[in-house]
Write a structure and sequence with these properties.
Layout (H helix, E strand, L loop, with lengths): L12 E3 L2 E3 L3 H12 L3 H4 L1 H8 L3 H25 L6 H8 L2 H30 L4 H17 L2 H27 L17 H12 L6 H5 L7 H37 L4 H8 L6 H32 L18 H17 L6 H19 L12 H15 L3 H35 L1
Antiparallel strand pairs: 1-2
Amino acid sequence: MLGDDHTSATHATVTGGLRRSLGVTDAVVIGLGAMIGAGIFAALAPAAAAAGSGLLIGLAVAAVVAYCNATSSARLAARYPASGGTYVYGRERLGEFFGYLAGWAFVVGKTASCAAMALTVGLYVWPQYAHAVAVAALVALTAVNYAGVQKSAWLTRGIVAVVLAVLAAVVTAALGSGATDTARLQFGSDITVAGVLQAGGLLFFAFAGYARIATLGEEVRAPQRTIPRAIPTALAITLIVYAAVAIAALLVLGPQQLAQAAAPLTEVVRAAGAGWLEPVVRLGAAVAALGSLLALILGVSRTTLAMARDRHLPHGLAAVHPRFAVPHRAEIAVGVIVAVVAATADVRAAIGFSSFGVLVYYAIANASAATLTRAENRPPRLIPTLGLIGCLVLAFTLPLASVLAGASVLATGAFVYGLRRILTDAPARSDDTAH
């Protein structure tokens, strides 16, 4: 048992306008919905292209960094159970600028990820009208989030169940076929350190959804107990699932064929002689993208709420709905912006800077955790240190275009922060001069 998941409204508590209604199971499911998303249906191919037969090593690297990040995030979230995640941790432990930088990287980067996930739904469901389907999906999920986080948790349960069933079918079909070859799991001369690290960076983002548990800190019951249990549980389940899928794909396709696959898991079932599963896999990819999108909207809107409270974003976005106890204006704003982007552009190519931003976000989380004292239940020193170094190494081994785009986004955020401070301090200096 994961713990008490009785989440009726009669037992919910309210804090700061948001209702604490999520138990351990709900928090784990939301984390799984964010992690076991569309990434596993697409990330294996570019990771295999980078790492070759070292794909599983890249997965292990990503898992180690994710574990460090998850541990640091869990300890921080238990101490600061407020909406905003690393935006709050960086502000409280490192200073306002680092908190702002983490929030900026998360909101801007994950907004692009939202649009990409919405487009993924459209491309799988109705490719000829992908943009229209993407907008419809955004409208529907924004409405679900608006009705309350508990509605989102229940929908995510269904999505996670469908995706896990599809992935289990893929692994079973692959391992039960005569197309497997254990020689494809052997390490070859195509392995390079740079390639493994780049694969780790690409695969890391399939694990990054546990941040959604932390950003919902004000909506989790008994957060000091629930969050530290939910984050590692969700991460462990995800790692087991990803390892099984990666091994199955390598056994059937091998690293070279996997690297060239446009839809890797579709290719796996086809090569395994289970072509009848292809429509099921496509449906699973669409549902997985919906799950990721739902969790992303939750996370981005809560970080937007936290930044709006501190007036780094328009203060009106800090409003909480009196009935549904959700940051309704932030959710609507995020939904509208993402819908505009998804309706007018193909943002899949822009996910690189989102990836860079997420690693910077977690680097700040690890740096924040390193400042915790023993009395504050700090993790072993090695964990945030390894997480910080791992995040920075993976960030700067991403493709050059991704690094440049991500660095430009962060520089823009830093400029906006500095300009705002100058404009805010100017009246105060004028008053001091007058007196």
